[in-house]
Amino acid sequence: MKVNIWTSCSITVDEKERFYLVYLHKRDVEPIFDILKYKYFRAKKVSRWSITRSKVVLQVKTEPEGEDIVVEIVPLGRKAILTRAGVGKLPPFKPEPLLVKSRLERTLVDVNSREGELVVSTGEIGCHIRLDEWKLYITDKNGRVFFKEYWNGIRRGGFPVYPLCYKVVGEEKHFIESIALEPDEAVYGFGERFGRLNKRGQRLLMWNSDTTMTSSDRSYKSIPFYMSTKGYGLFVKTGAKMVFEVGSEYCYNAVSFEVWQNYLEYIVFYGPSFKEILRMYTELTGRPPLPPLWSFGLWMSRCAYRNRKEVEEVAEKLREYQIPCDIINIDPLWLKHYCDLEWNTENFPNPEEMLRKLARKGFKVCLWIQPYVPKGTAMYEEGAEKGYFVKNKKGEVYNIIDFARKEVGIVDFTNPEAREWYKKKLKKLFKMGVDVFKCDMGEAVPEDAVFYDDSTGIETHNIYPLYYQGTVFEASREYFGEGLVWGRSGCPGIQRYPVQWSGDCHTTFEDMACVLRGGLSYSMSGVPFWSHDIGGFQGPKPSPKLYIRWSQWGLLSSHSRCHGTTPREPWEYGEEALRIFKKFAELRYSLLPYLYSCAREASEEGLPVVRPLVLEFQEDPAVREVDLEYMLGPFILVVPVFSENDEVEYYLPKRLWLDWWTRKPVEGGSWVKEKVPLDRIPLFIREDSIIPLTTPMNYVYEKPYDEIKLEIFLRKSAELKYCFDREKFDIKAAKDDKHAVISLGESKKKWTIAMFEEKSPREVLAHQCRLINWSYSREKKKIVIEVNELAQGATVRIVY
Questions:
Q1: How far apart are CA 756 and CA 774, in angstroms?
Q2: Number of structural domains found in the chain
Q3: Which has the closest alpha carbon to 713: 752, 667, 663?
Q4: Is residue 466 part of a domain?
Q5: In terms of domains, do 305 and 421 share one?
Q6: What is the distance between the alpha carbons of residues 519 and 560, in angstroms, rounded to a whole number?
C-alpha cells in the first residue's frame, strides 16, 4: 500500500501516524520465482555476437520467445568482468555515482569461438558462453570453474529457478540472474545485516529502512555485493530495489537476485582471497580518506541532552573522572525544529560560548541532523521556493512524515544548487565551533518520488545516503581540509564518507550479538569504518553488567560511541562499571597508534578495521560460521561476552597466540569454553604481529606524543603500515635462527621495542638511529630495546 502526501494536503494526526507506520512496515518481499503469478523469459540461444572496442555484444533469443536479450561482456581488469543485460538497446554505461572509475586497469582481451563456445579471456580469468544453449561460467587461468550460472534450476518442473532472464511485472520488466552454490559454499556481505554472518539460507531485501531495531532482516545499509568461499565477489551495480535469495527456502542450491529495473549490470571479481576481492571492489567504488585522529577517541552521547547545562555537566565529569573522551554529541534538542539547522537558544543559550568552553576542555562537538526540513519553517519556505526538495509526479514538494510526526520536505541532493545551499548552512555552524554532524535518517525516499536528475524514488531510495552524507562530508572537507560524518544509512560507495554506526539497537545481550554480526557483514561489504551504540540505544536502562560487557568490545571497535535513550555515561552504572569502563577506554587510547595504522590500511587498500575471522583465516574451514568474535585489525583477536552468566565459547585459529593480559603463549586450533571475570574479555595477539602503543591521555593531543611502545611477537615475519601523529612509514620485522631485523622510518619520537617469546640475544645493533639501551628477561622471554633519533632507513638488528 502507498500513501502519498502532497504539500496541499491537510493531514490529521491519525493520518500522519498511519503514514509513518506504513513507511516503517513497507516490505514488498515475495519470492523471485512464481510462475503462477508472473511470466519469465530466460536466455536460450545466442543468435549473433560481435566485438565492439573492449566489449563483446551478444543478441540472445529467449524461451518462451519474447523480446531478445542484449548482453555485453566487458573486462574491467585482469580479474574483473562486467556483465550487462537488457531488452532492446542497453543504456550507456554510467560509472557514477556508484563507481569512482570505469575500470581497474587496461587489459589485453582475447576473444575466440571454439566448439560452440565463446571465450572472453584476460589471461587471468576467462568468461565462457555457450552459443547454442545459453550458459555462462567463468574460469581461472588454470581452467578451474569458480563462477557459473545455475543451469539445473530449469529442470525443477513447477518450481523453476532460471539463470539470466526477465520477469514481466505489470508493464515493467525486472531482470534476474541465478548463480550456482556448491554444497559447502559460504556467502558473506550484502551490507549491514544483523543475522548470521554466513548469509546462506537467507532472503535479503535491498531496500533501506528505518529499521527501528537491529534484530530482523531489515537494514539501514543495503549493499548488493557479496563474496563467496569459491573465491569470487559479485557486485550488482544499481541503486534500485533488489532482492537476493541466498540458498534460501525456495532453492537451496543457488543465489538468485532480482532487480527492479529493465536491465542488469553485475561485476564478478576473482580473488581468490577475500582481501584481494575487497581491494578491487573498493578501488572501483571508492576508498575512505583517513578520518581525523580525534575521531578514533571516545564519543559520548545521549538521546538526548536536554540543555546546555546537561552537556557541560557531562563534560566536567568526564574530565573529573579522567575518562578519555574527545567528542560530545548533542541529539535533536539543540534544534529549534527538526531539522532547520537553527539553534534552540532557549535550551542552549549562547551556543558559541558553550562550544568555546568545551573546546578549551579538549572536546569536539557533534550535532544531530536529518535531511528532512519541517513545513512551516523559514528553511522549508526557502527550499520550496528555490526547488531544493524532492518532488512528486505533479512537480510539487513531496512531503512525508518524519519520526516526530511532522510534515517535512526531503532535500534533493542530486541538485547541485541544493547541495551548495545545504553546505552553506552547515559551514555557518562549523564557523561557530561545531566539528562534525551526525547524519541520521535518510532511508525514507518514497518509490514514486522524482529527483532533480530525473531519477525516481525506486532508483534513488537506496543510494540517497551517498548524496546526503556525501554533501555533509564535502562541507566538512571544504571547511576543515578533512571530512567526517557520523551516518546511519548506507549503500555502495558510502565508505568514501566515513563513519557510519549501526542504528537503533535494544538494550539486551541478544541485540548486542546482532549488532556485532551487522558490523562484520558491513566489513565484508567493503566498508572499513563502523561503530554502534555502547549499552544499546533503546529499551530499559541496561544493567551494569550489560553496559560493562558492551563497553568492553565497543571500546575495541573501529570507532566508539556511548549512546542511548537513557544515560550512557559510565558513572551512571556504579563504581565497578566506572572502573572497568575507564580501564578499557584507556586501553583504546593506548591503542590509537595501532588503530590509526589500521585506518591507513583501510584508506589505502579498502580493508576493514573490524574483521570477521574468515577474512584473516580464509583457509580454515572452521571459521566460516564464526561471527561472535573478530579481529581488530590484522593482529588482535577480540572475544566479546554475550551472556549474563559470563560464559563464553570461542575459537582460536591454528597458530600461536599471546594472551593479551598475561603475554603468555596459547596454542590455537581448538574451541575454548570459559567463564570470564567481569573486568576482562578474552583478547589475544596473533603470531607475527606488530602493535604500536602510546600513553593514554584525556583526549587526543592533550600532550605531545613523545614515545611509542612497539610490541612485536615474531615467528617469521610481520609488517604494519604505521601511521600516527603525522608520521607514516612501513614497519617490517623478520627473523631466522641467527638474526631478527626490525625496519622503521624517520621519527622524532623515542621508541621502546618489546619482543615476546624470544631467546637471549648476544647483541643489539642500531642503524640510522641511536641505541639508548636494551635488556632481556629470561623469566618473561622478553627483549626490550630503546632507540631514538630515527632517520630514514632506521633498522634494529638482534643477533642471537
A1: 14
A2: 3
A3: 663
A4: yes
A5: yes
A6: 13
Q: Could you read off the pLDDT of 524-544 as tens digits, one per residue? A: 999 999 999 999 999 999 999
pLDDT tens digits, 51-105: 988 899 999 999 999 999 999 999 999 999 999 999 989 999 999 999 999 999 9
Question: Which positions are catalytic?
Answer: 440, 443, 504
How many CB atoms are located within 10 Å of the residue 566 CB?
Answer: 16
| Alpha helix segments (H runs only) across 491-574 | 509-523, 544-554
What is the number of alpha carbons within 13 Å of residue 197 lying toward its C-beta?
A: 24
Please give the grid coordinates belonging to residue 793: 632507513
Domain boundary among 446, 462, 497: 497
What is the spatial order of strands in the sheet that 689-693 belongs to? Answer: 689-693, 707-713, 750-756, 782-788, 770-777
pTM (whole model) above 0.90: yes
Kindly provide the b/e burial profile for residues 495-524, where b requires at least 16 CB atoms within 10 angstroms of the residue's own CB. Answer: bbbbbbbbbbbbbbbebbbbbbbbbbbbbb
φ, ψ dihedrals at 457, nearest 5° = -60, -35
DSSP, collapsed to helix, strand or coil, labels residue 566 as coil
Q: Do residue 641 and residue 762 come from a single domain?
A: no
The Cα 449–Cα 123 span in angstroms is: 45
State the angle between helix axes of 464-480 and 416-432 in degrees (0 to 180), rounded to the nearest 10. Answer: 50
- Tell me: do 342 and 450 sit in the same domain: yes
pLDDT in tens, 682-727: 999 999 999 999 999 999 999 999 999 999 999 999 999 999 999 9
Q: Is residue 402 part of a domain?
A: yes
Q: Which helix (H) or strand (E) holds 500?
A: strand 500-501
The predicted model gives 476-486 an average pLDDT of 98
> How many CB atoms sit inside 10 A of residue 311's CB?
23
The one-letter amino acid at 670: S
Q: What is the DSSP string of 412-443?
A: -TTSHHHHHHHHHHHHHHHHHT--EEEE----
What is the residue range of 308's domain? 289-497
Does 748 map to a domain?
Answer: yes
| 3-state SS class at 66 | coil
Residues 648 and 781 occupy one common structural domain: no
Residues 638 and 671 in one domain: yes
CATH classification at residue 634? 2.60.40.1180
User: Considering 684, 715, 745, which residue would you say is the last residue of a domain?
Assistant: 684
The three cell numbers locating residue 718: 610481520
Report yes or no on 384 lying in a domain.
yes
C-alpha cell at 466: 551517498
Instruction: Say what angle helices 575-590 and 592-605 make with each other, to 10 degrees.
Output: 50
Residues 348 and 487 in one domain: yes
381 and 469 co-located in one domain: yes
Give every CB contact of residue 797 below 8 A, 6+ residues apart in sequence. Answer: 739, 740, 741, 742, 764, 765, 766, 767
- What is the rounded distance in angstroms from the CA atom of residue 90 to the CA atom of residue 71? 9
Taking the C-alpha atoms of residue 735 and residue 719, their distance in angstroms, rounded to an integer, is: 12
CATH classification at residue 482: 3.20.20.80
